[in-house]
């Protein structure tokens, strides 16, 4: 029997496919609230029940947890390992997650602020280095294309970042005055004596 000979059968099959697709592909949007995700999820579940398509509590709960944003990972991990995950109602799981919402949103706000500072710093350095690169090209009469100029700017940015943010040495160094400068001297040089001048604190090749 062709599907067009029984439109009702075709319509039911289409609705079934649509509901299952909505269930499998449901995902929280980046800035969507927990309540909004829960409401959309419940709408999908209700549509499935209308055509007698049901999921177990375990399938339902795991799907909802997997649909949430990354900032909910800690809470979702705890609930996945909860022995009740296969028996609790979706409403109960939602209420448990609601108790964590303020903490989750606070941590996300701090992380977003930190990331924004990093992005702003990278943008500032990139602009400065790009201007420097263009200035150097103009001075040298170079005619690099956009791709080469961008590549140079990124290399300069990487070098600048490494120079600016590389950790300081944690070794226990000594300092002694040589002329008008303070020079770091490793612990191994403490008892060294120069063969040229006879003074301690450095080797002959440094005299």
UniProtKB/TrEMBL annotation:
Highest taxon above the source species: Eukaryota
Q: What is this protein called?
A: Uncharacterized protein
Q: Which organism is it from?
A: Arctium lappa (Greater burdock)
């Amino acid at each position: 029997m062709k599907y067009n000979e029984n439109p009702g059968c075709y319509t039911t099959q289409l609705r079934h496919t649509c509901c299952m697709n909505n269930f499998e592909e449901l995902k929280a949007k980046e800035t969507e609230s927990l309540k909004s995700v829960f409401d959309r999820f419940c709408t999908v579940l209700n549509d499935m029940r209308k055509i007698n398509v049901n999921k177990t509590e375990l399938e339902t709960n795991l799907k909802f947890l997997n649909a949430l944003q990354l900032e909910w990972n800690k809470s979702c991990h705890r609930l996945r390992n909860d022995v009740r995950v296969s028996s609790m109602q979706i409403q109960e799981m939602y209420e448990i997650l609601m108790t964590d919402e303020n903490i989750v949103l606070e941590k996300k706000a701090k992380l977003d602020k930190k990331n924004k500072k990093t992005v702003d710093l990278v943008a500032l350095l990139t602009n400065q280095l790009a201007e420097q690169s263009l200035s150097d090209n103009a001075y040298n009469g170079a005619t690099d294309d956009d791709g080469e100029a961008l590549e140079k700017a990124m290399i300069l940015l990487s070098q600048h970042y490494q120079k600016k943010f590389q950790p300081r040495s944690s070794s226990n160094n000594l300092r002694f005055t040589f002329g008008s400068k303070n020079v770091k001297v490793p612990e191994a040089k403490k008892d060294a004596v120069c063969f040229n001048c006879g003074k301690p604190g450095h080797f002959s090749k440094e005299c």
